Amino acid sequence: MTKPELVDIIAAKAQTTKNTAEAMLNAYTEAIMEALSQGLNVQLIGFGKFEVQLRKARKGRNPQTGEAIDIPAKTVPIFRPGAAMKRAAAKSP
User: Fold this and answer.
1) 74-81 and 68-71 strand pairing
2) Crossing angle for the helix pair 3-14 and 18-37, nearest 10 degrees?
3) What percentage of the chain reaches a pLDDT higher than 70?
4) CATH class label, 41-93
5) CA torsion sign, 78 to 21 to 45 to 91?
6) How far apart are CA 30 and CA 23, in angstroms?
7) Which among 9, 37, 36 has a CA at the least distance from the CA of 25?
């Protein structure tokens, strides 16, 4: 599903215009990104949890040369689906 398709669905379910639905979707994603950039978790009961996790430094290999390289530690966003989302996904073909 693309963003325009999601906007169409939101507009229909919220009985609003596509412009309003897109503004709501943009505000939602911006709020989550802002919280994650501050190191906060965002938990939506039943839907899931967005959080920031530290990925440890590790050794890796350059696939072209086979040379060993050091991959630095970094912070990455992750999403953990909630129970309701897991049940909905289990019903998909």
Assistant:
1) unpaired
2) 110
3) 100
4) few secondary structures
5) negative
6) 10
7) 9
